[in-house]
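Sample A.
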Amino acid sequence: MNVAVIEFFIKEVETKEFRDKRVLEVGSKYVNGSIRPLIEKFLSPSEYIGVDIELW
């Protein structure tokens, strides 16, 4: 995962916006890492769903 993604996550995300809520991440394809573990570990959502579209 690009360091800029982690920096943005740390700077902009507020725990209260995620705690006990359902999270839908659009564009969550796992490429060089994912923020999913950060969301699940530190933000305590009630559910996390990640979706992406891949054309063949």
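Sample B.
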Amino acid sequence: MKAAVLKEWGTPLAIENIPDPVLGTGEVLVDMVATSLPSYAAEVFSGERRYPLVLPAVPGGGGVGRVRAVGPDATRLAAGDWVYCDCTVRSRDDALSPDITLQGVSARGEGGLKLQRYFHDGSLAEQMRVPTENAVPIGPINAGDAARWCALGVALVPYGGFLAAGLRAGETVLVSGATGNFGSAAVAVALAMGAARVVAPGRNEVALQDLARRFGPRLRPYRLTGEEAADCRGMQTAASGPVDCVLDIMPPSVGTGVVRAALMTVRPYGRVVLMGGVGMLGGSDLALPYPWIMRNCITIHGQWMYPRAAVPWLAALAQSGVLDFGQYEVTEFGLDHANEAVAHAAANGGPFRMTVVRP
């Protein structure tokens, strides 16, 4: 099969033929139809992000395809089914503390790397082998819409955060990082889940206006000034009431001051979820005040990715139309042009934009 292979950090992807994956028990083979590239893919492939990924590897964090073959343990999946290939692979021998690898992307700890050595190659290929539970049916879709369905991979991340927070309909949410690709998806997901209003702080006035245009009065934009105390007060004012839940999904390049200002808007007994990359490349600690956390009964929850059930739940929201993937602007590339796609993704990040490779 044809695949894009990352052989060494900082080198272009090599487009070449590699052996077809071999199906094993507890696995599914999928013919990949579309896979999206994050805006920071070039930073991952250069090694700048320091993601644990054993090279050479076929990169790519999941995507949309059709089942080619299933193992003997599959009871409902069948050849031809449309599925989302979930890159979040969990070990099966520890239900309480499973090791995790993001297939074709990264891993957590030694256990995650051990898992990665088996579920190694990602979605930038004509076929992908995934654990049975990671081939999630999304129902019948039009083949022409497969690229837009790659938005599942973006929206699933903040959705996992809101599930961890126990977000309830009618609550007020603040999304720290709302003008980014994952942050704007978080805004859409929170509103689809029934949030009464979403506070969207950011520095990019054009992006803030675009969010307000898309989502109307339930979206409360706030232009960040860079002054921590003032921004905290300003975001609380924009909320027009208590902030029940804060989701931070800022990238590694952001300093902790802007994150801290957002987190400290939350009301007493409120919940904070940390899902971003702040501090991963060094820098100062978040340094939240102990008395404020304790006396206000603040819940702080770290969340990496999402539970297995999140994929069919979110797919159902999209199938119903409550969550609209049609608002994404999609640019498509063939597999032979994967390096051009990486460059395009880097230059065209931001809200509701996707760069998709069609293997």
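B remarks: The mean pLDDT is 96. The radius of gyration is 20 Å.
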